[in-house]
Amino acid sequence: MSLWFALSPLIVLTFGGLGLMMADAFSKTRSDLALGSFLTFTSAGLFALALWIMGGVPAAVMLKVAPYIVLDKFTLFFTATICLGGAISSLLAGGYLPEHDIDRGEFYALMILAAIGAVLLAAAGDFLSLFIGLETMSLGVYCMTGFRRTNPRSAEGALKYFLLGSFAAALMLYGGALIYGATGSTSIEGIRTALTSGEFGTLRDPSRLATVVIAMVLVLVGLAFKISAVPFHMWTPDAYQGAPTPATAFMSVVVKAAAVATMMRVLLVAFGDKASSSWSSGWPPVIAGMAVLTMLVANFIALRQENVKRMLAYSSIAHAGYLLVGMVAAWGQGNEIVAGEGRAALLFYMLQYTVTQAGAFGALILCGSKGKEAVTYEDLAGLGRRHPGAALPFALFIISLAGVPPTAGFFGKLYLFRAAVDGGFTWLAIIGLLNSALGAYYYLRVLVFLYMKEPAPGAAQATPMKSGYIYGALAIAAALVLYFGILPGKALEMAASAGKSLGAKIEVREVPTKMPDTATAALP
Amino acid sequence: MSAYAPMFLLFAVGLLLVLAFFVGTSLLGPKNKGAEHQLPFECGSESTGGRHIRLSVKFYLTAILFVVFDIEAVFLYPWGVKFRSLGWSGLVSMLGFLSVLVVGLVYCWKKGALEWEK
Amino acid sequence: MNAIPIPAFLVVAGIIFGIGAFGFLVRRNVLVALMSIELMLNAINLTFVAFNRAYPHNHTGHVFAFFVIAIAAAEAAVGLALVLSFFRLRKTVRSDEGDLLKN
Fold first, then answer.
1. A372 pairs with which residues across the strands?
2. Half-sphere exposure at residue A125, Cβ-oriented, CA atoms within 13 angstroms
3. Do residues A373 and A154 lie in contact, with contact meaning Cβ atoms separated by under 8 Å?
4. Do C19 and B10 lie within an 8 Å CB cutoff?
């Protein structure tokens, strides 16, 4: 297998993104950029699937780009997830942007370029590529958040997101610098080797140990920020509410997927040694505490929301809490079987969350039209009777978010909490279940408004928009939600196999041979 | 490796230093004693207008485009120094990198970001 | 052998990073916040390059510094654009006056 084929998802995305930029710049008429963007994402996702079906990338090919890009099945799984989220979001944008008169072509290019960053982030096996991926993704998403240039809320959300995001990235990078100082390595594998073996193995030297601990805290803060875990979630509701809804959908699924992938790689591989990943002296209790805090805070605040978009933002934070429960299960006290189950559950949860959450935002888009976006619960009142076609998909995604069978969300939560129980974290699973019950309350409130309330007399009513793109996106998302909800076996199997490949030994070269030597020879 | 020990003072030292700056400026810095003291006394002319002049946003756009493309040159220097030993693979990689930049430049151009007068 | 010891650089970098972080958290002017972030990134560069002296067999730290410089430039470009669009709509550069989005 050639390296080009192994890298094909990234290459397809790059050419697609650059191509769309050129198409946007050169075409006089508004060419169908949404479709181009959708096709780019689909073909990149299909390339990832093809690589998967061929049994993954052979080690010899992987070594050519290791440790900067790790092309294991874990990466392929996340590439496919990211491309799925991107494809749905670009169709949503194709309907939403023209309807609300912000139809400018750069949105699609930004989306694809941000997705390249996300894929790179999920594939990063070195802090260098990790940081480049993180920034590529983030810069694109900041721009997408501020895309409604005449809307003060959009500008404000984007600015807040940018400031806090860059601050968190800088903290994380400082963590990377300290790790480099303590271990002499910036690659995930290299850090693990340094922490487990040789002169650093026991980290006897207290100052070196303290450096690693500080670095780990800084890196954790950066990652928690990106998956929007409490107490680093402040930006999330503002950015989600201010952003145009397709950008919100993109942020809530793609950014989160990439951040979860990095978090797994950094915590389970780089800090996966006995000392750093023990309940008494390592990161697991921190993650578990953060999970509890995230679920509780997000669900309680979501209860009080009157704005559905903001409610969905808090729901996305709550889901970050469930994902962190999965993170603890994926650690599984170092027991490999339990950890394997936990990883599979976490990856499956991420996959089902991608289609469900993107679908929910899509349904929200569908319920509004030019001049009157559906934003509050009141806007949705009576929609089930007036426009059953628009209310039905919304209802489906909402019950999947709540975790009711026969939808994807049910199996996501089932596997996740079962893995937590098997890992010996019954208390965490119980807190998670109680929170799901809490979450069901505000999700069901949407259904109540859709089907049981009538709009207040004289209130401006939101009418559903008409767009083939939105219908297409919702059809794809709904089909997958039902598919994962009825036949989750295949996807779970893939998640398990992807989880297994994470951190598996490929013979990593000592040091990248040519590039760094020559790159710095210019220095005096 | 006690050589690393000073590092753990750094947050504390950083914080102290900043606090010292704040306290220092409030003690040593000029105090504003009211608008009367700012007026020229028996010399010069009465000042008019505010301190802030609005600069056209065109300056910002041009400057930022310059910075972005300028910084990318940082990757060209090391490549140029080791041009021969990097050989064809280095050349191809650098061409790939530059062609991405060229796409960005063409985009700016076509979008009219390089025009001073619209 | 009269070279300045590595910890000296690290302490300077740490102080600069601290000033940056402090400035970011305390100042309410978004332009100052942007400058603080740049300060933090430069402190990181210094840390990387200083640590590289402890590991002279490769140049990882130096390479990092190059990439951080490039990324900082891109970040500044995007950040200034966002500040500009905020200023156009709100006529202010103070972050505490951005209060349209609330619970």
1. A369
2. 24
3. no
4. no
Cα C21 to Cα A453: distance, rounded to the nearest angstrom = 50
Q: Amino acid letter at B98?
A: L
* Residue range C1-37, pLDDT digits in tens: 467 888 889 999 999 999 999 999 988 899 999 999 9
Residues 14-73 of C with CB under 8 A from B: 14-19, 21-23, 66, 69-70, 73
Instruction: Give the pLDDT band of residue A200 (cuts 50, 70, 90).
Output: low
Pairwise CA distance, residues A146 & A242, whole Å = 8
> ω before A98 within 30° of 0 (cis)?
no
Q: Is the pLDDT of residue A514 over 80?
A: no
> Which ipTM did the prediction report?
0.95
- C contact chains, 3+ CB pairs < 8 A: A, B
Q: How far is CA A46 from CA A42, A79, A156, B46, in A?
A: 6, 10, 37, 72
Amino acid present at B21 = F
Q: Which of chain B's residues have a Cβ under 8 Å away from the Cβ of A211?
A: 4, 7
Distance (Å, whole) CA A432 – CA A438:
10
pLDDT at B6: 63
Tokens 């958290």 label which residue?
C25
* pLDDT score at A508: 47
Q: Which band of pLDDT confidence, cut at 50, 70 and 90, is reported for residue A145?
A: very high
Minimal CA separation from C92 to chain A, in Å = 11
- pLDDT tens digits, A261-271: 999 999 999 88
pLDDT confidence of residue C27: 87
Question: What are the tokens at B3?
Answer: 């050589």
Rounded to 5 degrees, φ, ψ at A185 are -140, 150
Contacts of C15 in chain B (CB under 8 A): 10, 13-14, 17
Section A67-72 average pLDDT? 90
DSSP state of C3: P
Q: Where are the domains of chain B?
A: 2-38, 57-111
Residues A279, A285, A290, CA angle at the centre, nearest 5°?
A: 170
Query: Under an 8 A CB cutoff, do A153 and C101 touch?
Result: yes
For chain B, the residue count is 118
| A&B contacts, CB < 8 Å | 51
In order of start, what are the domains of chain C with their CATH numbers? Answer: 6-93 (1.10.287.3510)
Contacts of residue C21 in chain B, CB cutoff 8 Å?
14
Length of chain A: 524
CA neighbor of A251 nearest in space, from A122, A140, A152:
A140
Give Cβ neighbours of residue A477 (< 8 Å, ≥ 6 apart): A88, A355, A356, A358, A359, A362, A393, A397
What is residue C4's predicted lDDT score, i.e. its pLDDT? 81
Half-sphere exposure of C88 (CA within 13 A, CB side): 15
Residue B35 or B25, more confident: B25
